[in-house]
Amino acid sequence: MRDRLLAAEKVKAIDWRDGALFLLDQRLLPASETWLRYTDAAGVAEAIRSMVVRGAPAIGIAAAYGVALSAARRLEAGGDWHAAVSADMALLAASRPTAVNLFWALNRMRERLARLRSGESPVAALEAEAADIHESDREANLTMAQLGVDMIRKHQGNVQALLTHCNTGALATGGFGTALGVIRGAWIEGMIERVYVDETRPWLQGSRLTAWELANEGIPVTLNADSAAAHIMKTKGITWVIVGADRITANGDVANKIGTYQLAVNAMHHGVRFMVVAPSSTIDMSLATGDDIPIEERAGSELLEVGGVRFGADVEAFNPVFDVTPADLIDVIVTEKGVVERPDTAKMSQLMCRKRLH
Ligand code: MRU
């Protein structure tokens, strides 16, 4: 399956060339494939904030390259470059609050900086560290795809239809995806007939990004309104809901795109299994439960306007963009270190003691 997955890898959203970071502008997809070039940390922080790049692993990878760019620019400028790089890291850390991969990647870069040997080039060392974060995420995607497919096979062999939410594919990661990687693997293995994709209001990551990725690969995809999910679970033979994560806490609670929690409640009601797929860089063992996760709230205008045109009434709008699914609604969490069925604190801490499987 690994070779077939690699052969199917068509889309990428992050590229590092000639000392610059290139990001596919995800705000414009699928209408236009426009690449933007970044040469400093402030630009990368703004790209994360404004959602040029989005998806938890992709945000972490972009931030890591942002630190490499920071070192290059601050060394060129002279003076106390260490202090200036620290300030840039703080700027990157402030770009979005929920996906822990951002802070995980910045910590890795900070630790690499602290381990510099005398005479070693900081820029080369940080570029290599960012590239390693990028490549490891791609490898983790492959491992998770295999483990997720094994999990589907273990429970019921061939499935008729899956439901997913938001975008967890090549656009959101360093490889071809977390939840969408499992879905791609299941398709390659002939295990699914159709994928239902929630449109994922208000940013429409489902209709603009996931549906586009799946259709590009010839995987049968049907788009639905978020509010149709329970009806689809009841009437369309859905056997698994498969989603990604932005932060998983020590007890197995999962923060993911707003709407994930209601999917898990509905899945439990309909006897549909619920799978979360995320690399271990998404697991935050410093937080005991999901109640501690900072939930990003974005502008109400994202709900009241479409394409910049106001259609909503003149009212206040509440726009939390993530929610927390409690661990007891989750059948399995799939990571590159292994899987955790019916997650709890003891099982999560055992998982984190394991080595990566690749
Ligand atoms: O606001 P976004 O688009 O960054 O949110 C992304 C999600 O919620 C994804 O489901 C999650 O990051 C998993 S991506 C592999």
From TrEMBL:
Homology family: Belongs to the EIF-2B alpha/beta/delta subunits family. MtnA subfamily.
Active site: 246
Keywords in alphabetical order: Amino-acid biosynthesis, Isomerase, Methionine biosynthesis
Positions of the record's site feature: Transition state stabilizer: 166
Pathway: Amino-acid biosynthesis; L-methionine biosynthesis via salvage pathway; L-methionine from S-methyl-5-thio-alpha-D-ribose 1-phosphate: step 1/6
Reaction catalysed by this enzyme: 5-(methylsulfanyl)-alpha-D-ribose 1-phosphate = 5-(methylsulfanyl)-D-ribulose 1-phosphate
EC number: 5.3.1.23
Function, as annotated: Catalyzes the interconversion of methylthioribose-1-phosphate (MTR-1-P) into methylthioribulose-1-phosphate (MTRu-1-P).
Organism of this sequence: Pseudomonas quercus
Name of the protein: Methylthioribose-1-phosphate isomerase
KW Amino-acid biosynthesis (keyword) present: yes
Keyword Amino-acid biosynthesis: yes
Residues that bind substrate: 54-56, 96, 205, 256-257
InterPro entries (alphabetical): IF-2B-related, IF-M1Pi, IF_2B-like_C, Initiation_fac_2B_a/b/d, M1Pi_N, NagB/RpiA_transferase-like
One annotated GO molecular function: S-methyl-5-thioribose-1-phosphate isomerase activity
